[in-house]
Every structure is written in C-alpha cells, then in structure tokens.
Amino acid sequence: MTIDPPPKAMAGSVVIGGFVALLLIAAGVVGIHDLVAELGWVEDGAWIAAALSEVDGTRVARWVVAAAVASFIVGLALLLVALKPRRRTHLAGTDDVIDLWVSRSALAALAVDSAERTPWVALASARTRSRRIDVEVRTADDEERVRQAVGAAVHARLDGLTELPVSVRCKELSQ
Amino acid sequence: MSRRLVALDRFACLVLALALVAAGLFGLDWAYRLVFDYPDAIDLEPALDLTTTPWWAWATGCAGAVLVALGLWWLLSHARRTTPSTLRLPDSDPTGALQVDLSSVADTLAKAFEAGTPVSDVQGSTRSIGPRHVIELTGHVDARAEGNSISEAAREIIDQLHEAFPPDGVHCRIILNKPRARGLVRPARSTARVH
Fold it and tell me: Which end of chain A is more exposed for a tag (fewer CB within 10 A), N or C?
C-alpha cells in the first residue's frame, strides 16, 4: 500500500535556505571582525561603521531606481519559489499492496517502445499527462487497425504500473 | 532532510522575498515620492553615533558569533542524515539488544530487485516517513520491461522483507525512473591508409 507523502521534487526554497544560511555566516563574520578591530587585533577599521558612513548622505539617483526595480522583481520571484508546492514526480502503481511509484517519463518510454514494436508502426512518441497517456504513431497502414493494435499493446505493457487510459493518434508516414 | 528543515527553508525564503519586495517598493517611493515624504538624502547620524558607544563592538561580536553558529548549524543540517540507519528488533530485552543495519538491508534488497527485474542501477536507501522506517529502492526501468513482471517482482521483494521484519517495523517503497540514456555511438573507424 502506498503511504504519504508521495515522491516529490526538492523544494526550490531549500537552495534559498542554504543561501540565507551563508548570509547569516557572512553577517556574523562582519560582526566578529568589528569586535576584533576594536580590540586592535587587526589593522583595518570596523566594517559596519565604514558601510554606514558610505551610505550616509546618499541622494536619489538613477541607480536607486534600478536597484529598487531589481529588488522588487527578485522578491516576487522568491515569493513564487516560497509559495509553490513541491511537484509530485511519480504516479502510484496499480497494486494496492505494494508502494510502487513510476515516473511519467518512464511510462512514456515504455509506451513508445511498446508502440514501436507493434506491426506497421514506423515511429512513435508518447507523453504522460495527468489523466491519460498520449501516444502518437506514424504508419503507412490502416490507421484504425493500427490505433487499436497500439492501444492494446501499450495497455498490456503498462498493466501493473498504471491505470491511466491510453489515447492513440495515428499520422501518415509521409507527414 | 526533515520536514521541519524544509519548513524553515520555506519560511526564510518567504521572509527574504517580502523584505526584497518591500525594499523595492520603498526605493521607488523614495525616488518618486508616491506615498510618503522622505528627506532628500539618507541620514544615518544616529546609527553612526551608536557605533561609537563602548558596548557596540561587544554587541556586534556576540551577535556575530551567534549568527555564525546559527548559519553553520543551518548549513550542516542540509547535509546531516536524519534517518537512523539501525532498527531495534522486538525480540530485544533487558539482557541484550537485537539491532539490524537497515542500510545493509536496503543494499541487499536493491541487488535482489535488480537481479530479478528489468530495472537497472537500483540504489537502496533508508529514510523516515512519519513514524515509519522506510527502505527506498530507486532504479531505472528498461524500455522493454513489462509492467506486470515489475509489479510481481516488487511484491516478492516486499514479501521477503516482511518475512524477515514485522510489517509495521519497516516499509519498502519502490521508485521507477525513466530508462538510462544509451551511450554514445562510437564513430566508424576511418578507412585504412595505404602508403
């Protein structure tokens, strides 16, 4: 039986979390440096006071507008990253007893191989959507007969892995 | 990684995002005076006066040490293993403990699964999902594989696991990924040179 949660992709916020951790370390190093500078253990002066002096008296300039726009855009992007739910990467198998998960690309690869081994199919491609598997084949034979044969072959191949319906589309070989 | 760490990362990302959005909006408001009134230039004299106080250096030093420790803990938490790799068996009693190394069990199951199915590069790992110890087998399915054969082999592996361990002690999850990309085709040999 499958258990929650299902396999999911890594959250993008994990990378941001690592970056924030590095920012904290950098801020901490600055704070420790200023204490060390005050004690005279290093020759250069305090960094925080120097940075504040540099910013003090700054007037509005073009770079302020550019920086503000960039900050706003990056902030919006990070907001999306923070709020976006983790993507489910695999679909549950059909057996209720076992905890089996199959990726969409694996199902598509099996469907393509099965379709290409069907008689009169020259070329095949497949895509696993949320509610069905779309298979497209190119054939020089009767399209209806090939559609049914490919549908049955793909369905048989994927039996045990998924219950998604299979939709087959035929195109002439010359197209 | 634990759910708590993922939640912390997500919260930090949200706080950083809101701070950047706010900074951007205030920057534009300062430039174009849309909502609030601002002085023509930034005045940081009060903050600069603060940096000259006797306690400032010690405050920044202590705060710095705390931030470095917090940052290091956070960074190392991403690499730290949160899943215990051993399982204490129910037959343990006060006179002795029976423990099993789940990593070894995962490796053994991975090899057995790969040997019995058209699934390659099977890797076994252990993790916790809620209160359960979970052995996770991840592999790449062969493009010519039959779904039923994989399903039956998966059932056999899980039955083997439950014969050795109680069903509520260890859970097995099997994850199938797409077939591995085929290797590059070797270029044809150049024709022999005739001297």
Answer: C
